[in-house]
Amino acid sequence: MCCAFNGGRGLSAKQTGNSEFKMQAAMEITAKYCRKEMEDYGMCVASNPSSWQQDCYQLKVKVAHCTSSHPVIQKIRSDCSEPFSAFEQCLKLNQTSVGNCSEHISKFLACAETVKLSSLGEPVAVPHV
């Protein structure tokens, strides 16, 4: 779920300090296109506080599948890879002051907003961070 735009890679301990900013952008887009899967998973986790990792595993897999296979997310990942990579690089260089990367995240989200699916022919609206 967290890794819709970084090829499914997890976060290293060093990256974790900056991850909230990056994850917020990914979560905004994931929530828009995989809302049902995320809601089902969240309700399962809330309902199973002591056993959620086991009880909700299949729902977690569904969220991961959605983020890796949804056509809009794939298109954003493809069309906006350059601004997202610049954003990731900015986070690496500004680990103690991620606010310095707000312009980079804005560029990525602006790109995501302009993504069009040829089958839909409609612009994709993504909420702003």
Automatic annotation (TrEMBL):
Pfam families for this protein: CX9C
InterPro entries xref list: CHCH_domain-containing_protein, CX9C
Domain IMS import disulfide relay-system CHCH-CHCH-like Cx9C, chain residue ranges per copy: 27-71
Protein name, per record: Coiled-coil-helix-coiled-coil-helix domain-containing protein 5-like
